[in-house]
Sequence to fold (566 residues):
Amino acid sequence: MKLLVCISHVPDTTSKINFTEGDTKFDTTGVQFVINPNDEFGLTRAMWFKEKQNATVDVISVGGAETEPTLRKALAIGADAAIRVNAEATDGHSVATYLAAAAKEGQYDLIIAGRESIDYNGGMVPGMLAAMLDANFVTNCISLEIDGTKATAIREIDGGKETISTVLPLVIGGQKGLVEESDLRIPNMRGIMMARKKPLTVIETATETSETHSVSFEKPAPRGAVKLVEADNIDELINLLHNEAKVI
Amino acid sequence: MPVLVYTESDQGKFKKAALEVASYGKAVAEAMGTSLTALTFKVSDASELGNYGVDKVLNINSTNTFNAKIYADAIKQAAEKENATVVILSASADSRYLAPLVSVGLSAAYVPNVVATPSNLSPFTVKRTAFTNKAFCNTELSTAIKIIGVSNNSFGLIENKAAAHIEDFSPSLATSSTSVTSTDKASDKVTIADAEVVVSAGRGLKGPENWGMIEELADVLGAATACSKPVSDLGWRSHSEHVGQTGKPVAANLYIAIGISGAIQHLAGINSSKIKVVINTDPEAPFFKAADYGIVGDAFEVVPKLIEKLKVFKAQNA
Fold:
C-alpha cells in the first residue's frame, strides 16, 4: 500500500497571533512552526500502517524552504520520503491543486490529511483533493482500518459518530481519535540521524490557481474586565445573565 | 441569478443552522437584488422556510441517507439549474464535509467560517475567522460562483415572510462506493454545534465521577456538555466533547467554564461565544481575563447552589 500524508506547516498552538504590513501579513516573528496537529494524528496512524501492514509512507507539504524542518521532523518520526512543492500556500484550492498533481504522479492508494489546519481552519484541502482525484473521501475521521482495498472509517458527526465502509483510493481528513494523544511520537536521535539521509524531493510548480485572496486581518476587539460575583451570591450571577447579558 | 442555500434537515425537521443560513441567504439576496432558493432533502413540508425569506424550495425525494458525494452533486446541479452565483451552507459536520466537493464541482471559490454578510459585492468580500478564532480575515472570492460557509450562531434567525414555492427536484445523481454502515447518535442530547448554552468542565473536577452535577446543570439550562483537552486526553470524557484548537469550536450565546484554567488553545476555541462565565478556585487562572462574569470559588460548592437557584429561576420564568 502506498500512502501519502499531507503536512501543513503551522504556528504552534501557543503562538500569539499578530500581523504586519498594515495587517495584510501574518507576523512570523518569534513564532515556532510545527506539524499541524490534525496532520500529526494522521502521520502517526500512517506509521501503524507502515509497521503492521507494510505500507510505504511519503509526506508532502506545500511551501518554501522554511517548511523543510517540518518535513524532516515527519521523516524523523518514520516517513520514508518527503516531497516539498515549492510554492506559497496561498489558499486551499491552490494547495489542493498542487497536492493532486503530485498525488497523481505517485499513484497513492491512501492519502491522509488533517481535518483542517489550525492556521486558516479552511477544512477544504482534503475534500478538494479527493474531488480532483475522483477518490473516495471521509473527513472528521476518528478511526481507520484498511483490509486489502476495503476501508472502514468512523466519522464524527454532530452529536455522535457513524461507521463508513468504502474502498481505496481514499482521501482521509483526520483528527484526534485516529490515534490518541499518548500515541504521538517524539523523534529520537536515531530517527533524526536517519531523516537526514532520507530523500526530500523539491517539485517546482507551473501555475498558481488560488480562488480566494486574504485582503486584510483583524484581531477581535479587546474585552472589558471580568465582573466578579461573590461565591455566596449566586442570585446576582443569575440576575446579570438574565437582565444584563440576556442569555438566560 | 438567485442565491442558493442548502437547508439541512434531520428526520424531515429543519436544523437551527438551516434556518440561520436561510436568514443569512435572504440578507445576501436582498443586497444583490435577487431571490432566494433553498435545496432540501426529503422534507415533506418545507413551508417553514418561507418564514425566513425563502422564495423557492427545491426538494429532492429520491435519496436516502446522507452521502457527501451524492449530496454535493445534488447541490451542484441545483446551483446550475437556478443559475445561482452564490451558494450558502452552514458549519455543520455534513455541510463542511460536502462543501469542498461542491467547490470543485462548480469551480467555485469556497470560504468557510464566515461571520457576517459580504462587506462588498464587487469584489465579493467576506469576513471569516482565522487562526482558530484568534483573528479575522477579510477574504475576496474571485470566481464567478461563490460558496460561503456561515459560522454557527454568527447571524441568528431573522424572520422574513416569503412565498416558499415548493418544487420537486429529481436530478440524476452521482453514485458512490462509500456507504454508512451504522450510526451512533444520542438523540436526546443537545449537540455542541446546535447549543445556545454550553456547560464545560476541566481538570478542576478531579475525576469523571464528578460530572453528575455538570450534566444536571446542562439539563437545567437545556445546554450541551463539553470539556477541556486534558479531560478528554485522560479519558474522563469523550473526545467529541473536547473544546479548543484541536477540538471543537464553540459559538454559543453562553459558555460556562467550570474548573478550566483557560489555556490559550481552549480560549481560542470559545472566542466566538458571546457571554463567558468562569467558575474557578484560582483567581489567577487565565480564564478570568477572557470571561465576562466570574466566580472565584470551589466548583463543588458553587455548582450545586447554581443548579438549585436556576431551577427556581426557570420555574418562575417558564
In short: Chain A touches chain B through 80 residues (CB under 8 Å). The first strand of chain A starts at residue 2 and ends at 6.
